[in-house]
Amino acid sequence: MNDFKPDSKPLSVRNIPPLAAVRDKWGWFLALGALLVVIGFLAAYHVFTATLVSVVFVGTLMLIAGVGMLVNAWRVQGWGSFLLWTFSGVLYLGAGILAFYNPATGAAVFTLLLGATLIGSGAFRLWVWFQNRAQRGWKWLALSGVLTLLTGLLIAVGWPDNSVWVLGLLLALDLVFQGAMLLMLGLAMRRT
Hints:
Elements: H1 19-22, H2 26-45, H3 47-75, H4 82-101, H5 103-131, H6 139-158, H7 166-191
């Protein structure tokens, strides 16, 4: 009684609109790209404000997640993970409240966590590279690990002084690169 019928199209073709279907929308891609680039440069110019906005945004998400975890903890009390869900929910709520109550302190905490995460990620990539260094093409993983580790160390060494601009600068760079990508995509669509 199996009603499952596999799709005959390969995975790479399914659910992807052909370029022809969105080609006439190239102007929207250009407009959105230009808007993101402008907002990115504004964020870079007002980097402290961009940092605070990103902290408040992340804090909002953490508040929502914390409430969700606490609700889930009380709904599955007999499951055995009640304390874990409750503890996680309280941590998320606490971090979200901190981000709203004092965004500058929230920025310092988030920046330190970002630095620690980058250090850990870079070290892990270097360990994976070291274990597989005889493989072809693994030098790119080593380069990625070194760059990630150095970025994390730079953030950690400059902490807490750099916490007023690191998150805002990352937000600005992301907006500029996303906008540039959309601009290039819109121009490519216009030419085809």
